């Protein structure tokens, strides 16, 4: 049970895939302008990571190491196709907003990174939990970034207006800059800054 | 003229890094020195230049709705576009494998400098992303797709060499402890992205 807790909780804090390992920033900051696509994206990545970890872990003794990348890509691509078709069927509007970024889960470094670093050398159940944990850690950052961008950029959360109308009458304006893609990078930079200031052991030494 | 327009647009306006954040992992990890980052940038450009036209042909003659009509009229209603992810990534992975062997043979220095990141080009989001954007935009012919691939690659090269140069310069600056390394790179990339927004709205 202690193992269970460790696998799920660690990626949320000190082994966060985005802020500490710097994986999987690729496909995903572009989807954080609004909260809803960010949540859907987070769940999709979690599902793909967990199940690809499970499948690769089951297959790990039978995969020749020369072609393992291609085998992994095929497994991940098949799972992503399932997720993509599922999203198109049930949440079509969000699927339209995410456009190519669902497909880009295939090349999301978190998925590949966990397969290489964990699933290839661990048992199926643990790998599955590891996938869930990393997916959660990833979603957490995505949701934090999307929260600030939607709140400050559009004054809404999940599409509902949260900043009272009277503020706008007093001259409050939405910060249009937050909607622009570069602000996502700056917010992640600030999250990393805060996290590393709180945990000095994570700081990079001066040699680099 | 149309080709030139696509080229400029893909280098500056739809820059893979600053507008779509594609290929960020290797972008952040390899951008410590200008030399290796230029090598990786050239490799990415090369892979894009080859894979995007090939994927364009595959999309046009195999995957898009009704594309199989050239085999027999009976197949005109078949829509295989749901297979595009798996087919695109297979093409990309095999081309990267070939490229890896070629570089290993002809330039061992570059091979050892790029190290782990050469096989990882296969999972570089910029490569697959470019193919998917190509599918979404529906170019008219192969030349347009090739120019789009080339332009996106050069834009990526420009971005990674730019940040590598800045990171070389700031190595001796006094940066708050928590920001050193990755943190400051994020902030710089964000600022560079805002600078690149100045290209928005350019019409040629």
Q: Detail the poorly predicted runs of chain A.
A: none
The beta-strand count of chain A equals: 2
Average pLDDT figure of chain A: 78
Q: How are strands sequenced across the largest beta sheet of chain A?
A: 1-2
Could you explain the architecture of this structure?
The complex is a heterodimer of chains A (208) and B (204). Chain A has helices spanning 2-9, 35-59, 68-90, 92-98, 100-103, 109-117, 124-154, 165-169, 182-198; strands at 156-157, 160-161. With 208 residues, chain A is mainly α. Chain A has one domain (26-202). A two-stranded antiparallel ribbon of chain A has the order 1-2. In chain A, a hairpin with a 2-residue loop joins strand 1 (156-157) and strand 2. The longest helix of chain A is centred in the last third of the chain and has 31 residues, at 124-154. The model of chain A has no long low-confidence stretch (mean pLDDT 78). The mean pLDDT of chain B is 80. Chains A and B meet through helix 3 and helix 9 of A and helix 2, helix 3, helix 5, helix 8 and helix 10 of B.
Brief descriptors of the model:
heterodimer; A: 208 residues; mainly alpha; two-stranded antiparallel sheet; 62% helix; B: 204 residues; 10 helices; 0% strand
Write a compact overview of the structure shown.
The complex is a heterodimer of chains A (208) and B (204). With 208 residues, chain A is mainly alpha-helical.
Topology:
The complex is a heterodimer of chains A (208) and B (204).
Chain A lengths: L1 H8 L25 H25 L8 H23 L1 H7 L1 H4 L5 H9 L6 H31 L1 E2 L2 E2 L3 H5 L12 H17 L10
Chain B lengths: L1 H12 L2 H5 L3 H7 L3 H30 L20 H23 L1 H7 L2 H4 L4 H13 L4 H28 L12 H15 L8
Helix pairs in contact in B: 1-9, 4-5, 4-8, 4-9, 5-6, 5-8, 8-9
